[in-house]
Amino acid sequence: MGETKKNLIKSWATPIRSIDNAEQGEILIYGEQVYANVNNEEGARIAGPNHWDYTYIYVNQGRENLFVKKDKQQHTPQELVVK
């Protein structure tokens, strides 16, 4: 909280998606796809029943981090609708 967008990206890396919200600022989205483990000989992980763990970071017009929200969804980053 209170970090600048620039410092946030330096420590967290580039977000997988960002959404410009002209009225309130910008939403930076970080995500990790969680795969179901499959019992096979090689122990491979495949995309089966899976989900995404998302972290949304809301940045105001002054480019300071306002708050963070965590979420778990089936939607890919391209399918997300964030308000």
What does this structure look like?
It is a single chain. This protein is mainly beta and 83 residues long. Helix content is 10%, strand content 51%. The chain has a four-stranded antiparallel β-sheet with strand order 1-2-3-4, with no helix packed on it. A hairpin with a 5-residue loop joins strand 3 and strand 4. The longest helix has 8 residues. The radius of gyration is 15 Å and the shape is elongated. The two termini are 19 Å apart. The model has no long low-confidence stretch (mean pLDDT 81).
- Give the C-alpha Rg: 15 Å
Q: Low-confidence runs (pLDDT<50, min 5 residues)?
A: none
Shape: elongated
Q: Write down how many β-strands occur, each being a DSSP E stretch of 2 or more residues.
A: 4
What amount of the residues lies in strands? over 45%
> What is the residue-averaged pLDDT?
81
